Amino acid sequence: xxxxxxxxxxxxxxxxxxxxxxxxxxxxxxxxxxxxxxxxxxxxxxxxxxxxxxxxxxxxxxxxxxxxxxxxxxxxxxxxxxxxxxxxxxxxxxxxxxxxxxxxxxxxxxxxxxxxxxxxxxxxxxxxxxxxxxxxxxxxxxxxxxxxxxxxxxxxxxxxxxxxxxxxxxxxxxxxxxxxxxxxxxxxxxxxxxxxxxxxxxxxxxxxxxxxxxxxxxxxxxxxxxxxxxxxxxxxxxxxxx
Length: 242
What we know:
It is a single chain. By secondary structure, this protein is α+β, with helices and mostly antiparallel strands. It has three helices and nine strands; from the N terminus they run ββαβββββαββα. The chain has helices spanning about 20-25, 140-145, 185-240, and strands spanning about 1-10, 15-20, 35-40, 50-60, 75-80, 95-100, 105-115, 160-165, 170-175.
């Protein structure tokens, strides 16, 4: 048997289905992640649906990893930014077991995403709407959601939520807008740029002073060597004459 975790991005709903029929499961074998599968193989209620394989886990809980072209489990050295791994310390790398991206009989749970809706509704997937708990946080995404211009104030468009605690007054939480260009941010940017420019000019002046001092020291050393050589020559000539 295999469990299918089916999600519908259009409604935000997801549902877990367990299928025991080996003939239905055989249609998913040797398929890779991100490949699309016709829903008709699962039954008449899925007629017209198209699913995309987004991942899965094997019977021991190891996740499928995109790009690992095998059905077996392998151990890979993973670093920051790799899927199936979260860095705990800066610069850390770790060897972890992952399952290949090809579906086989060892997969226990397969994640599917509805790409195209079919003829009928699926109870719990297409007939219900699950509202988003959190709204967008980034300034450009808030503008895109509410069709705003750059000059509009985004503070009033933050998606707020009320948090109720037992025996306490309910509080309202709202996200802090990220990547918001404000006059203070522009002033800081100008200050950083001016600071960088001043540091560059200071470095040039220090380099010029260093080159001048180095040339002076080389000249003084050359004069000292010439003076010592002349002294030695005069001493040698004096000893020969005597």
